[in-house]
Design a protein that fits this description.
Low-confidence stretches: 126-140, 227-263
Strand order of the largest sheet: 36-35-34-33-32-55-54
CATH superfamily of the largest domain: TolB, C-terminal domain
Helix content: 10-25%
Number of domains: 3
CATH topology of the largest domain: Neuraminidase
CATH architecture of the largest domain: 6 Propeller
Number of strands: 56
Length: 816
């Protein structure tokens, strides 16, 4: 297509390769090239710049794979090593929606640092129906390496690269180029490697590997087999899927093959369902995705939302496909597996439920507090779960009434969390959180009421066979040897992964390990930004800089914003922003976690929740006060959060997390004896209540229908509820003049005009705008109702991938 020159970038003083082509690039090609230039991977030749007829690329010293193969087949070890590096390059590109479409030995350089894949400059960000060449008419793929659908001009995706990868691997193995429909392996090729290549070359794209990361995983398993291994082909008759299943521990009807402990770790990523999102831990989104690895390491369970419906999902790690479990729609959370990996237990609407992984209707096991943080299923058929403010309970997996195993010492503790059975099905780990949110890990037993202190760490702890405990400290996932029989820790903890999602106050983090050496975890940093958005969804301006923001609340005059900001040390303070000038002033400065601000009607005081020496309870502070504020209510052992302050100043609404009646809405009178009283305390979870400007109505969220919906009742005496949302709804907010009610459904801003206040007549809600990939974490409404201050997630657990590591004990620590 042109000539390639060695050149020098005089500005940055670096050598470059300059490809000059015979015709000018199209505008669309240049647009795609700009996207591709964002690729930054050690096994991808970087595209620095693109002009009207040239590409400026990283200069890579080495020899092309095509030239190397002129000398014949490559040794098996090099095939596997270089093959896995090619997979890494493709996986990095596919993660950004970029398909190479012209992978071949001539586009692969073998440099000192390993493989470098070239010519991503001719790739496609997407392949429209009917196209077989890139947008520039001077660039085309190479037919000998094209997948059947690519040759036929059908729509192409990442699987065309997987096909080309199979052709390249076959050529590396045999030294001869493969053609469509021709076998590519010989009797000298180990069956595991044969299976990997044959699945790459499947004519039907649905029968191929669906991701380059999966091919790398399978190649790593082939690499783990000794070179002299010549097992009977019958063992591998199930193809590459069986190869993976064998590696991670169990394949029905086959001989067990154990991966050596010192074998190299292989990792890949699991993304949310197409068009959907992971569901984070309820009430603790910083804790990351709600996930659980099956004990046999073959499946990952997680909670995800698609098309506004939240369900329990399973990802089959061998087939790389995800599917939702029918019947789990509603508000499923905290899944955990049975020891045989056939069933999954989870919590939903105050019930502990179970469902078979193969499908079928879910069935109730017992009643359970909806705030239960994780459960565990033991080898003896028992299930333990935590009702945090009460203790840990035990129930048979077949159903029955729960019995108490541990009780919270209310004088020194606030919660018991995260029980986790050891393999014997009798002993278990759990965390006890004291009044300062410090976690201690205890070893308990279903046969005894006593517990022994094991360690102090602000993290839940999980046993990973054989003989490790996994936990998080400062966002680093650590492992430490654990003598299961003696129940003692040995040696020092060592790092496994860094930058995990993490919520220290409850010790929650998204990680889960199988008994076969497969680990799942989620990394990343949640960042949001405050943006002013008009009624069409157009962003007008940003307030402040991106940070970890929570609970934005506009002052009654709309000139200031009170908001909680979480810092790097996980300390959360309140700030007040000046809306006009964009400046911020710290409002609280304590070592505690302050949250959920609400303005007084005159804009001179802010009520908020603080965990100063106890579970969060209510405080207030004047804007011009130099003190830390005053307590409005003494702590009573339950979690509380401020919701709203009435316009007449007489009532403060707050959330109270009750271990019996779930989350309830209470009213604190701001005059007289200040004796609080329940406003909404049904068996369902009520939250996020907001009073109408005239004080006659309260909008709130309840899960009584099986999923969160917005309702309205009269105030102060609640009458019959009026359902406002249909299809899910959260975050109800009133316009200051009481003429509209706003809320969020899915990721859409909804509005309902109020026609008559007396009987609360309103128009059917309609969508104002959708935020697309940016999640609406929270919002407030400008006094005139013409714009919204939206706390919009830049990154969040919903769209961050989950990392899967096979043979995690063989992974190099992040510090090495």
């Amino acid at each position: 297509m042109g000539a390639v020159y060695r050149g020098r970038d005089t500005r940055l003083d670096r050598p470059v390769a300059i490809k000059i082509v015979h015709e000018e690039f199209s505008e669309r090609f240049q647009s795609e090239a700009r996207a591709i230039s964002a690729l930054n991977h050690p096994h991808i030749c970087t595209l620095y710049d693109v002009g009207v007829n040239y590409l400026v690329m990283e200069l890579v010293e080495g020899q092309t794979l095509a030239r190397t193969l002129e000398g014949g087949p490559m040794p098996r070890q090099l095939v596997l090593r270089y093959g896995m590096q090619i997979c890494e390059a493709l996986a990095a590109a596919h993660a950004k929606g970029i398909v190479h479409r012209d992978l071949k030995p001539a586009n692969i350089i073998l440099a000192r640092s390993g493989v470098k894949v070239l010519d991503f400059g001719v790739a496609k960000v997407e392949a429209p129906e009917g196209e077989t060449v890139a947008a520039s008419r001077v660039i085309a793929g190479t037919p000998a390496y094209m997948a059947p659908e690519q040759l036929a001009g059908r729509r192409c995706d990442a699987r065309v690269d997987v096909y080309a990868l199979g052709v390249v691997l076959a050529e590396m193995i045999t030294g001869t180029r493969a053609t469509h429909g021709t076998p590519v392996v010989t009797a000298d090729v180990p069956p595991p490697l044969t299976s990997v290549v044959e699945r790459c070359l499947a004519e039907d794209p649905d029968e191929r590997w669906h991701a380059a990361a999966d091919v790398k995983w399978a190649l790593a398993q082939a690499a783990a087999q000794p070179a002299s291994d010549r097992r009977s082909p019958v063992i591998w008759a199930a193809g590459a899927v069986a190869a993976i299943a064998l590696t991670i521990g169990l394949a029905a009807g086959m001989r067990l093959v154990r991966t050596p402990v010192d074998a190299a770790a292989v990792s890949f990523e699991v993304s949310p369902p197409d068009g959907g999102s992971f569901q984070p831990f309820p009430g603790a989104s910083m804790a990351g995705a709600d996930l659980a690895m099956a004990p046999n390491g073959r499946s990952l369970a997680f909670v995800a939302t698609l098309d506004g419906q939240t369900q329990l999902w399973i990802r089959d790690l061998a087939s790389t496909r995800s599917h939702a479990l029918s019947g789990t729609d509603g508000a499923p959370m905290h899944p955990f597996w049975s020891p045989d990996s056939r069933s999954i237990a989870y919590f939903d609407a105050g019930k502990l439920k179970r469902i078979e992984a193969a499908g079928g209707p879910p069935r109730d096991i017992s009643d359970a507090h909806t705030g239960a943080w994780t459960g565990t299923w033991g080898a003896r058929g028992d299930i333990l779960f935590a009702a945090p403010a009460s203790g840990i309970f035990r129930v048979s997996a077949n159903g029955g009434a729960p019995t108490t195993i541990t009780r919270v010492d209310t004088a020194a503790e606030r919660e018991h969390l995260a029980p986790h059975f050891l393999p014997d099905g009798r002993r278990f780990l759990y965390t006890a959180t004291d009044t300062n949110f410090r976690n201690r890990v205890y070893l308990g037993s279903t046969d005894s009421s006593s517990s022994a202190l094991l360690m102090q760490v602000n993290s839940r702890v999980e046993y990973a066979a054989p003989g490790y405990l996994l936990f998080v400290r400062d966002r680093t996932l650590l492992a430490q040897h654990f003598d299961e029989r003696a129940a003692v820790l040995q040696g020092d903890a060592f790092p496994v992964a860094e930058r995990l999602q993490y919520f220290p106050p409850l010790g929650l983090a998204p990680f889960s390990a199988s008994s076969t050496g497969v680990l799942a975890y989620q990394t990343g940093t949640i960042v949001s930004r405050l943006v002013w958005v008009d009624r069409s969804g157009r962003e007008e301006r940003m307030l402040g800089q991106p940070a970890n923001y929570y609970f934005p609340r506009l002052s009654p005059d709309g000139r200031r914003v009170a908001i909680a900001v979480l810092d790097q040390q996980y300390r959360q303070d309140l700030y007040v922003f000046d809306v006009v000038r964009g400046t911020a002033t710290r409002f609280t400065a304590t070592p505690s976690i302050e949250s959920s601000p609400a303005w007084s009607p005159d804009g001179r005081r802010i009520a908020f929740a603080s965990d100063r020496g106890a579970p969060p309870f209510l405080h207030q502070k004047a804007l011009d006060s130099g003190s830390d504020g005053e307590a409005l209510l003494p702590p009573d052992g339950t979690l509380t959060a401020v919701l709203d302050w009435s316009t007449d100043g007489r009532s403060l609404l707050y959330l109270r997390a009750d271990p019996v009646t779930n989350a309830d809405v209470w009213v604190l009178p701001m005059e007289g004896d200040r004796k609080p009283a329940p406003l909404l305390n049904t068996k369902f979870a009520e939250s996020d209540a907001r009073l109408s400007p005239d004080g006659r109505w309260v909008a709130y969220v309840s899960d009584e229908s099986g999923r969160p919906e917005v309702y309205v009742r009269s105030f102060p005496k609640p009458g019959e509820p009026r359902t406002i949302s249909n299809g899910g709804g959260v975050l109800p907010r009133w316009r200051r003049d009481g003429k509209e009610l706003f809320y969020v459904s899915g990721n859409q801003m909804m509005a309902a005009a109020i026609r008559a206040d007396a009987n609360f007549e309103l128009d059917s809600p309609g969508a104002l705008f959708a935020r697309g990939s940016a999640r609406i974490v929270d919002f407030d409404v400008a006094p005139d109702g013409r714009s919204f201050l939206v706390n919009s997630a830049v990154t969040s657990p919903e769209n961050l991938p989950i990392t899967i590591v096979v043979n995690w004990r063989g992974a190099p620590s992040p510090s090495r």
